[in-house]
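re: ur question from yesterday

yeah so i grabbed the chain u mentioned. its 138 aa long if i counted rite. heres the sequnce exactly as i have it in my notes:
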Amino acid sequence: MMSRKPYHSASHCKYLIQYHIIWCPKFRFSVLHGKADITLKQILQKICEDYGYRIKALEVMPDHIHIFVDVPQTVAPCDVVRTLKSKSAIELFKAYPTLKRFYARCGVLWSRGYFISTVGQISEATVMQYIEEQKSHE
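ran it thru and got these structure tokens back, copy pasting raw so excuse formatting
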């Protein structure tokens, strides 16, 4: 019997796709403090709601963001990051014109890089053992 895990269903699959994503402001300046922290959280929540992502955890630090999201199976990891970074920069610049002026010279809020990692319910060793033992179950 299958254990009750938070799997999602689509027309022809069951899935659970979760990512831990980290990114930073350009030059890793500490610009995400005070009200900007709260505003950015609200912006990210709205983006995730609009795109069908579910936030499991979110923390805005002065010089970087951590977000743990559950996403649909149809979205590539790079597209999740691109959506979060691009949409949030636009909205944060609208909310804080001084931040836009601060970054006017380079024209972007976020650094180009990011970290993304899958978050699974089972370990690599468990998957390997399961696959290796398949023929013994015939």
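noticed a couple things. The chain has one domain: 13-137. also The longest strand covers residues 54-61.
anyway ttyl
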